[in-house]
């Protein structure tokens, strides 16, 4: 019998088995129409039900207020790094505040500098991005404040979100959206690549307050203006239909588990199991300050790179897939996104125990 595989990749990441099975069952005949959802028109009533159903479930699960638009865009979070300042900063004299917490925040900062002034109000670069800055003071004249909710590479996460006052808070939630309850009204704009907790790669979820769209810049290229995608609700051009279909199934799955309260409790349990084991081991070493630890991406080191390579090789052979740390930092990383169950984390810990015993 083949070893069961546990998917710890940071992204594209694990999807719920139930979602994959339903998609498989409907692949050739969606909704009894005799065609695949991948080959029907995005203007058809069948797909209209899919995209509207996905938005409805997102609004319900996250508690999205009526004064926000929900958009399904393309280009990943990486396109949003530029699209946000392009739309919200109307001149190069305007300023945005950014919190620098790692590689993804760095990329967002780089793009924003093309469109206006960037004020880095806080950074954890002094300790190799091993913590989330606290007591951040934002500028009164900033057009918006930008934070990265969870850094997949460094394994740090905002446990609570900062208060930006009257300045709209913009947040990259690519790797932890739908992992816990949030107050959407605290944010002016939330964006997330789908390939962690929402669905497959190729879809970007954007939740944006209506006044920010109304006051956004004019004269932009059509596809990079939020106004375009609001006017033709995510349907100005052909959207990633199959990805949106999978998102709808994932939302159904989250709802079936009991919503974000149940998801959050499960994620807390998974992270605690792994962090408790690491903390009680002298063989594995956490490199992140406890108060800033990500519940989505757990990172750790061993005594040397050769031992880490051996660990990853043997883990892969044992069915633990995707445990290699990001190429820029090395080490090991286990991504515990929503679809990873408690059983998978316990299996990882058991393997880690055996590896430690054999390599002390």
Short recap of the structure:
The protein is an alpha/beta fold. 36% of the residues lie in helices and 17% in strands.
Structure explained in plain terms:
- The protein has 360 residues and is α/β, with parallel strands linked by helices.
- It has ten helices and 14 strands.
- Strands 2-10-9-8-5-3-4 form a seven-stranded mixed beta sheet, with helices on both faces. It has a three-stranded antiparallel beta sheet with strand order 11-12-14, covered by helices on one side.
- Helix 2 packs across helix 7 (241-257).
- The longest helix has 21 residues, at 259-279.
- The radius of gyration is 21 Å and the shape is globular.
- The model has no long low-confidence stretch (mean pLDDT 97).
What integer is the average pLDDT?
97
Any idea of the CATH class of the largest domain?
Alpha Beta
- The coarse overall form would be globular
Remind me, CATH topology of the largest domain?
Aspartate Aminotransferase, domain 2
What's the CATH architecture of the largest domain? 3-Layer(aba) Sandwich
Strand order of the largest sheet: 2-10-9-8-5-3-4
Report, as a whole number of angstroms, the end-to-end distance: 30 Å
Q: Biggest sheet, in brief?
A: 7 strands, mixed
Number of separate structural domains: 2
* Computed structural class: alpha/beta
- Beta-strand content estimate: 15-25%
Q: Specify the number of helices.
A: 10
Estimate percent helicity: 25-40%
- How many strand elements? 14
